[in-house]
Structure formats: structure tokens, C-alpha cells
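Appendix B, example 12.
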Amino acid sequence: MLGKLFNLFKKEPASKIDFSLGYPRLAEFKKYLANGDFKTFESRYEELSWDAKTLLNEGIGLNNAFSGEIEKWVDKNPESYIAHLFSGVSKTCQAWIARTSARGSAVSDERAQMFLSLLEEAYEHLNTADKINPEDAEICARMIRVGMGLGMETEVVLGYFEAAAELVPNHLMAHLMMINFLNPKWHGSLEEMQDFAEERYEEADSSLLIALRLFAITEEWNYLDMQGETEKRKAFFKDEKRKGELLDLYKNYREEEGGKLMIPYVYNYFSFLLYMTGEKNLAREIVKKITAQLTTYPWAYLGIDSNEKLQAI
């Protein structure tokens, strides 16, 4: 299996996107990991804010260049919840690479088995991390994506989300993972996805969670394509009422300190949606706020996979 996975990773093109959104301390933590200085990594991680922990997991856990070091780390420090957390994120990443981005019906039995096996490993690591330290919201947030791939019951996955939100009410990654689980292309419906976006935005009282409402709009448009509703999809962003609502949302949006490192997610979605409604000059102004902070989605829907392409819209 390891040999097959190695071949898969060799074929996987290196991403042009910095999943850490340019997190300034990423190089520091990469150095600790490369040098096998796991204890320093762990002590520095403990000091981080929740949004910094998220970006560190994005920048290291989702980078297969570090999968070997992460395995050494968890082997040497089996009692470290942080090692198990990063291993869980790494295994989840490997699972989705093995699966590919193809629709379920197009995924081979062999790849599907690799996908499930790696997700089961990810589950074990994250479950161990949570048993050692149930106070890190990042662990439950990452478990949501594992649950999505393993087809866990919605109530179970909601339990992981609620545990994360109880620790950090505006934990954006937990919210994004959960709303994607409720996406109709996975385990939910348009109504469940939209209701979750509205309810959480109101209940958590955090401007950061406007990203959920923007996500729901984007995925409603994308779902029309999946359903073959070509004409409705073409007309979706021409709706003047929808455009007016988006403009109002942006006009009233105010940045806040809580989770500020995650704000580029908000601007990526605002710029995408306003660009799609024809507000291209405003979209370009927003893009200037996120130099080198491109997120994979929603831009993947337009084939934009680098900051150079984003800056040229």
C-alpha cells in the first residue's frame, strides 16, 4: 500500500496555493519539524491562538512533504496529542489524494479502499488526540472531514462540531467543515446548508462567520451545475436582488480581532461572488486585500489556482 501511495503522491502536482494563507510563523515550525525538535514544536504550538493553530495545520498537516516527519514524530512521542492531531490531518490529506476529486461513481475500488483505510487511520489519530487533550477545538474540527469521508451519521458529526464550537464559538474551520458536510453533494441538502449558515452567523455573533452565508450562496450556484440546470445556473448571478444582498453584506461587513488570521477566507468569497455578479472593479479592490492569500475554493470553480491568476481577474 505504501508503494502505491508513494506513486500517487509523485503524480500529484505541487499546489500553487499556500494553505496557511502566508502564516508568518510557518517557516519556524517547519524548521522544528525538519530538525526533529518535536518538543519545541509542541511547546510553541500550545501558545498559539486558535486561528494560528488552524493555519499551522493547513500549512504543515496538508503538506505531504512533511508526512514522513509527522510519522516519526508520532512514533517517538505517542503520548503527544499534538503529534496525533497533525498525523490525523496528514492522513486525511493522503486519503483525499488517494480518492482524487472525481465523483464517487468514477473512483476505482482500489482507490476507494485506500481512501477509507487512510481515513480510518486519521480517525484513530484524532480520537487519540482528543482523549489526551479534549480542550483543543482543532481536533474536533478536523474530525468533521474524516466523518464526511467515512459517511458517519449527521448526528455524530454534529457532535464533533458542537464540541469544537463550545470551545471556540467562531472557529471558522469547524464551521466550514460542517457546512461542507451539509452540502447537498455530500450528506445534506440546500436547505440544511443554508439554515446552518444563517443560524450560526446569528447565534455566534461573529462577523467572521459571514463566510458561511457566502459559502452557501456559492454552493447553491454550483449545485445547479451538478443537477444539469444550465439555464438557471447562467441566470443565478444576474439576479438583481441577489446582487443587492451581496453588496449590502459587503458594505456592512466589519473585521474583528477574534480569528483575524482567517479573515482572508471572507474576502476570497466576497471577491468571487461580487466578480460573478458583474461587480468586477469592486471584486478587484477586495482581491488587493488578500495578496498571496488565495484559498482553493471558490476560485477552483473558475480554474484560478494561483495568486498570479487571481490578481489578474
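Residues 20 and 302 are 21 Å apart (CA to CA). The first helix runs from residue 2 to 11.
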